[in-house]
Amino acid sequence: MKLTGYGHTEIGKVRERNEDAYLLNLERPGAGVAAVADGLGGHAGGEIASNAATNALAEWARRSASLASPDLAELVESLNDAVFEAGLRAGVSNGVLTTLTLTLIVPPYLRLAHVGDSSAWILRNREITRLSVIHNVLHDTYGGDDKAASGVGNLQALTRVLGMATPPRPQTTEIELESGDRIVLLTDGITDVLGPNEIGGVLQLADSPKLAALALAGRANEKSGHDNLTAVVLHID
Length: 237
Prior knowledge:
Layout: E1 3-10, E2 20-25, E3 32-38, H1 46-63, H2 72-90, E4 100-106, E5 109-115, E6 119-124, E7 127-130, H3 137-142, E8 171-176, E9 182-186, H4 188-191, H5 196-205, H6 209-223, E10 229-236
Antiparallel strand pairs: 1-10, 2-3, 3-4, 4-5, 5-8, 6-7, 6-9, 9-10
Helix pairs in contact: 1-2, 5-6
């Protein structure tokens, strides 16, 4: 299998700074690491948090003998510690927090570890599927049931993020890849604006990961631009 990819981030039309970050490392033949992180809006140091997470992941990838073997929960715990310590060094009294959606790809397998409301998707045979869950009050506490959660406030508050004193329990999963698969990691500045069908359509029509990533961010920015926008696209051929 051949693995190619491209990552893109931009500030959008409203925010004063970009609190998103991404990592794309395809230096190992046929294998790679990809991730997106979204520093929590309204929290001081969102930019510090997202960059701490992706920088720590990049350092782990550089030092790791194999991308196929790590315990994903332990990896996320180490990344959480890196974000927590970055907040302490920055002197942010209430800490710095970020989402993280990461994939380790060693064909024919993709391994996913995820906390927060950024997302991972796969396009296969023209069908788009979300691989990640949403870690907020509505989904973690009420299983996504709006009726059961009726009357409860702040349902969109995130329940699992990096940067906490106690590491979060990540969603982890593994899938077997097929030639022709398209993988995309997105922050919610894109998924709040583009639905699954539009995301899938872009992935299907774009001839390259670069064109897909730029189109996803560009469309979301054109329609709204209320938040930072980040996309990492991977082609499996």
